[in-house]
Amino acid sequence: MSERPTAQELAEAILEFLGGEILPTLTDHRLRFRMLVAMNALGIVYRELEALPAADDTELRELAQQIRADNVPPGTLQRIKADVDRLQKENPDAPGPVPAELVTASGSGLDPHLSPEGARWQVPRVAKARGRTVAEIQTLVDRETEGRTLGFLGEPTVNVLRLNLALDRELRAPAEPRP
Predict the structure, then answer these.
(1) Cβ(87)–Cβ(102) below 8 Å
(2) What phi and psi, each to the nearest 5 degrees, are found at residue 2?
(3) What Cα–Cα distance (Å) separates residue 119 from each residue in 1, 101, 107, 172?
(4) CA-CA distances (angstroms) from residue 171 to 46, 138, 139, 178?
(5) Cα–Cα dist 61/138, whole Å
(6) What average pLDDT does this structure show over 1-15?
(7) Cα(113)–Cα(91) distance, integer angstroms
(8) What element of type H or E holds 39?
(9) Residue 59 — pLDDT band, cuts 50, 70, 90?
(10) Which of 70 and 167 is assigned the larger pLDDT?
(11) What band does 9 get if pLDDT is binned at 50, 70 and 90?
(12) Is the residue at 161 inside a domain?
């Protein structure tokens, strides 16, 4: 059984293929330029991947075993349950169950991105708080959703800071009438 290639190995293979096989065959100057731009972008992704610390499969396997054995830090499950309860109370009109990402955190707890599903789940609450329609808020969520890098790396995300700035800029809550 062969191992699955890493994202860095895939990016490197694609760069080699594009530069060695496709670029030399392009005679149209516009297409050649676009290919060079795409290769440069992929080169940036490759360098970003190269800069990431290598994942230690041993640690990941140990973590998975601990979770399966219900060996999680004390209070973790209670905290997650409390977070789920709080989010359900704060978002009574949200569709479906609370997305897992809303009750877990990245390593630093400071990740500025959510999945589009995580952002959509909160749309009814945000619409109500801002005095706007669900459709207005959803339109901004859709607009601020960033696709996969180069169309195939990673998952779509919503930059929460950019979304909040767009909400403030474009959909301010209607001013309350003065007495």
Answers:
(1) yes
(2) -85, 150
(3) 39, 10, 20, 18
(4) 38, 12, 11, 20
(5) 38
(6) 75
(7) 19
(8) helix 29-51
(9) low
(10) 167
(11) confident
(12) yes
State which residues form the domain around 38. Answer: 7-51
Count up the domains in the chain and report the number: 2
Q: Are residues 42 and 78 in the same domain?
A: no
Q: Structure tokens of 83? A: 């977070």
Q: Are 116 and 96 in contact (CB under 8 A)?
A: no
Q: Is there a single domain that holds both residue 112 and residue 154? A: yes
Q: Are 29 and 80 in a shared domain?
A: no
**101: its two tokens:** 């990402």
Shared domain for 146 and 95, answered yes or no, is: yes
Strands of the chain, DSSP E: 113-114, 145-146, 157-159
Q: What pLDDT is recorded for position 92?
A: 93
The DSSP symbol for 53 reads: P
Mean pLDDT of 65-73: 71
Which residue blocks in the chain are alpha helix, DSSP H? Answer: 7-17, 29-51, 57-68, 76-90, 116-121, 123-130, 134-143, 160-170
In a domain, 12, yes or no: yes
Q: For residue range 126-163, list pLDDT tens digits in order.
A: 999 999 999 999 999 999 999 887 777 778 899 889 99
Q: Is 81 among the domain residues?
A: yes
